[in-house]
Amino acid sequence: MQEKGSISIHTENIFPIIKKFLYSDHEIFLRELVSNAVDASQKIQKLSSIGEFTGELGDLTVAVEVDKEAKTITIKDRGIGMTAEEVKKYINQIAFSGATEFVEKYKETGEEGQLIGMFGLGFYSAFMVAKEVDIITKSHTGGAGTKWTCDGSTSYEISEVEKEDRGTEVVLHIADDSEEFLEEFRIRQILDKYCKFLPIAIKFGKDTEFVKDEEGNNVKDDKGEDKKIETDHIINADAPIWVKSPSDLTDQDYLDFYKKMYPMSEDPLFWIHLNVDYPFNLTGVLYFPKVKNDFDVNKNKIHLYSRQVFITDEVKDIVPEFLQLLHGIIDSPDIPLNVSRSFLQSDSNVKKISNYITKKVADKLNEQFRNDRENYEKKWDSIGLFVKYGMISDEKFYDKAKKFALVESTEGKFYTVDEYKEAFGANQTDKDGNLVVLYATDLDAQYGFVDAAKQKGYDVVKMDTLIDNHFVNGVEQKFEKVTFKRVDADVVDKLIDKDEKKESVLTEDESTKVKELYEKVIADKNYTVTVDSMATDDMPVIITRPEFMRRMKDMQANGGGGMMMMGGMPDMFNLSVNANHGIIQKILKSENEEEQSKLAKQAIDLAKLSQNMLTGADLSNFIKRSVNIVLED
């Protein structure tokens, strides 16, 4: 039997377009052809289980072989196979998939969702790398074998051939510009990437193991060489953990799987096993890693699969942005992919799945918080990044997370916002009835301000991560009657303004004189000078940057998008002179203008020094001046 003909082409699936433009990444050809072979093997298993195939199943391992000399790649299976008529139907009529007919026929078994489909557009990805493709196949129903050959044009040849066993061999004659795929390491790389969790064994290449004696030494053969055993290398030897029931898995199983997926990572904090079959099908395992203070480094660690076939690690359309810091696997046949299964397409299921994942994560965090708060607090450095990021970027997550979001005191204690109100509300409520949460971004640099707040009996919380600047701005308006103020944004009495006036030892004229002196000495229009009544043991001069300016500058420094314009604005500072400090009295008593200016300058430089603002010549002059003042005394 020999026959020639033309492939049936329809306007919606023109062959040249499929051949040249459908697949953006050429390596996908191997994923598609191996997936087809696995599907064919699953089909024969299915027919055997329902009694429609009574022969011996035997070994169903799919084999991938490379012949560098012949410039061919062959994918072999012992699956369902095809008759000559089926080849014409499923191969020549592009985009007519045998899966549709097969699933329709056996859908009453309720397992049709496990089948991807034997042949369809995926097969034609072969022509991205091959100048000619042969299919040699024999149906499980018996009969002669069939060979189909096509050179990438719309012409084909089909003939009868001898084939001993059922199944299909796809032989790719690799084009000159695609010879990279004849390298064994390249093929193994692709198989490891896309196929390592497929449900039918896939073999490629060999594993070599040296024979050892009882003492662990290599055994020699008759030629005096190390004796070794070669075995088939199985690509997908590791079972996909996400398809198993959580009740059948131990913590060690989850940790072992994580180490195989992310060998360079520390152990995760905990994990979530996803398993839902309505209103969509979704399985997977998501791990909470120990997050570094660099979000970009931690992203793109969630892998999207469709029925155990790797699709992509670009999951921004299905996983909320803040959860892209998680690691793990999501597998769903209901995620809409483009025709080449290369990327996501938006539809209602994507939004449903995204909402489901967000809810599961929130529920898991809440469970951890309620059931083991001590351990939850120990992990807050990493957990907090997820929670804060989620609260400012996802409204639904915020509604859940406010119950388990924590602030950490500089004393090392943790509070929810409600707990913080209860603990400090009486002392840290300002004249307008707002709870003021004082926070520090750098405990060492802001030590003096933190200490001053504590001297007043106030608590200060740590906000020193990359996300905290955005978090404070994002959620402040959502917390009722709660405001955040950086501890070095003003003198402490102004940060928590209780409308309590402190007495000043200065007269109005003296205050004016002091203010004018310091304005003259600072000689900088970016400084606003005020004379304030403070405790006698407070600093003589305190330099602060207004809360608004600090926030904008911090956000701009951390890449805060719309805040980039702040980079061009000059720094604005408040210079608060302590009216009740002894230095001020010394200045007023001196009638020497040079002496007054020297003392004022010394107090200003002390304030700058405490803020790490004194450098270069100014620092050198300050040191010399300090030595002279000591000698004068």
From TrEMBL:
Pfam name, any one: HATPase_c_3
Superkingdom field: Bacteria
Molecular function GO terms recorded: ATP binding; ATP hydrolysis activity; ATP-dependent protein folding chaperone; unfolded protein binding
Stored Gene3D superfamilies: 3.30.230.80, 3.40.50.11260, Heat shock protein 90, C-terminal domain, Histidine kinase-like ATPase, C-terminal domain
InterPro entries named among the record's database cross-references: HATPase_C_sf (IPR036890), Heat_shock_protein_90_CS (IPR019805), HSP90_C (IPR037196), Hsp90_fam (IPR001404), Hsp90_N (IPR020575), Ribosomal_Su5_D2-typ_SF (IPR020568)
SUPFAM superfamilies listed in its UniProt record: ATPase domain of HSP90 chaperone/DNA topoisomerase II/histidine kinase, Ribosomal protein S5 domain 2-like
Binding of ATP, residues: 32, 36, 77, 82, 97-98, 168, 341
Keywords, ordered alphabetically: ATP-binding, Chaperone, Cytoplasm, Nucleotide-binding, Stress response
UniProt-listed NCBIfam families: PRK05218.1
Family: Belongs to the heat shock protein 90 family.
Protein name: Chaperone protein HtpG
